[in-house]
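Help wanted!
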Amino acid sequence: ILNVEQSPQSLHVQEGDSTNFTCSFPSSNFYALHWYRWETAKSPEALFVMTLNGDEKKKGRISATLNTKEGYSYLYIKGSQPEDSATYLCAFKARNQGGKLIFGQGTELSVKP
Amino acid sequence: DVKVTQSSRYLVKRTGEKVFLECVQDMDHENMFWYRQDPGLGLRLIYFSYDVKMKEKGDIPEGYSVSREKKERFSLILESASTNQTSMYLCASSLVGFRGGRGSPYSNQPQHFGDGTRLSIL
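Answered by r_m:
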């Protein structure tokens, strides 16, 4: 059974703080790593799809890095805003699992004004 | 923008009932997925489909079936609802990838999700 771990489970920061979370996944049979943001009462929204070791992607104040050899990805938020409050999900796709995404439990971020 | 529409936001059913959850997407995506989300657990895949009339079991298919008669619609069926199927159900779609010139679920396209159906089985 493939395991995808995210840490921390929850995070409370002040507006303006920068923060980062970790996603750990199996380092063998890597195909892709996805990041999603899920705001309360909304649908999960894709942030990044990362496929190559060393990939770095950026979308506004949010960026992500990928290390497939050691099996981790970091998501960074620079200068957190209250509207960044959401659950951030990572999902791993292996080469040998029929194209399925395996999701982590998520990191719940709360940004206080 | 891709629109994935789930038929109900909230649904209450009784134990033993046959329950249908409907999902429609408007972007001609080949891949469609059904997940459930429970507290403390990540999204878990129930079934997916990467073509009309095709279906593949996910990680927790027991007690569920699916139907994909048209490309845009993917239905999840609870054959005989039980209380342990009380959950948030999410539908998603994505473009198919290609391997060897044939459609493949190995897509590097992101998944697009519906708003979810919170199903309670009493």
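OP: Thanks! One thing I noticed: The mean pLDDT of chain A is 94.
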